[in-house]
Amino acid sequence: MFTGIVAAVGRIEKIAPLGAGPEAGVRLTLDAGALDLADVELGDSIAIQGACMTVIEKSAHSFAVDVSRESLNKTAGLGAPGEVNLEKALRAHDRLGGHLVSGHVDGLGEVTRFERVGESHELRILASRDIGKYLAYKGSVTVNGVSLTVNAVNDRPDGCEFSINLIPHTVEVTTLKALAAGSKVNLEIDLIARYVERILSVSGTAGNPAPAA
What is the pTM assigned to this prediction? Predict the structure, then answer.
């Protein structure tokens, strides 16, 4: 689990194919930037652009992960060298500064607007209707691994456009500063929203005893 509070901006330095076929994944080697790897062990989880990955190699200032072709097809920002948001997995005694984040990308969104408004930036993203049904005013969403608050939701025939206000600090210390209209972003819906939908979907049978074996 993660919190969506980015600990550092690292950089994908090397991409090595894990096989020769079109279905082969890749091994990413990353410069960890300011992320402290002293307490990271092989097998630990680190979120990269919001996608949970397993550390398979580590040095003092870099680490490597293997990414399947399926993950590459369903995410943005992992298939080419460049800056990425990094967060180590949450420990039981850590502060929960953002919200509960699993590191499982639910889908891609497309930036429709990213512009300065006063001292902040307005970020608008178009998501599919399947993801849009989980978005709510003042609810939480994860964008490229960053825990953010939804300021407005606009359901459209082509999907759901939602708006976020980014304070200067968030823009400065994450890769969100590189976004522009047309950019693809990784989205993860609020974990609680998943359970609410499940509860409502079976509410007609709630409280009924299980059938006898």
Answer: 0.91
